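Letters spell out the chain; backbone shape is given numerically. Take this protein:
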Amino acid sequence: MFFFFCLPFFFFFFTAQAALVNVTIDDSAGDPLSGARVAYTPPDAWNSQNECQDCAVHPDVAQLEAGTWHESTFSVDSATTKYPDVPLTASVSFNGSAVYVFCALTNAASDMSFYIDGVVAGTFVQPALASDSATFNYRVPVFASARLPARQHTLTIQNGLQGGPRALLVLDSIVYTRDDSTQPSALPAAGAGATPKLRDANVAAAVVIVLVFVAFSGGLAIFLLRRRRRRRAVYAQYMPEGAVRAFPTFLGPARPGTPAHPGTPGLAPPQPAYAGGRPAPPSTSWWVGRDQKSSYRPYDDLDQAQGRLQRPQGWERPTAQV
């Protein structure tokens, strides 16, 4: 019983130890835990906030993660790009069970493909709009994969397809989910943005589960205890003081006056055997006195010729009633 009461606390401990947290990989600073940085290919086909002389767009840095971004433009026209008809990629490794990609979108066309461990996992396509391309939507989740095996993965973001239309990609950040049980004790501020909320949600869920389990266990224990006391009370009304039960524990006496079958009159419970000349109980008696031997002997009617059977002693033989 002690184990079952301790089980919720062990469950709560291990749940708290295995809380999931989000880690943000900035487009420039990289992973705050592992130090991995995003690899851009070809390197000179990408522009960043730090060296943005030829940037196609100029987003508001206050709306971006850590105030940085990386952008590239895919085109088949050699007059507008150094790498005509060459898809541009951004890759990073992470150890987790889910990953999300956030971009800043304009009214320009977008054509992104996402690969996890070399396998296509999703796409994001947005046609060009006729309105002003300088209008931005920030921190747009363009890709999400929430059911990955909890291990090391490589994410690759590809801008454009060979022979495809012109496309713009403005990368803001990448967020992945990992098990906090192997996380270092201190996190840099850049990677801990979403951690407290997720940890609080996991702890709250664990507390609710523990409380429900404790309430169920307590209710079950009270129910079993009361049931046991009721059964004892039923036996007690048939058991005279000083008597011991002579029937199996799993068989209980019927309630007094309760007929075995409908229409059958109820029978009173048998009287216990006491010293002092009171009549002895029949052979179906359920108990005998603690300090008294039953005067009923089933072998009194045996044939005396069967000498191999021992007759009861004189003091054991029933005496005639006076």
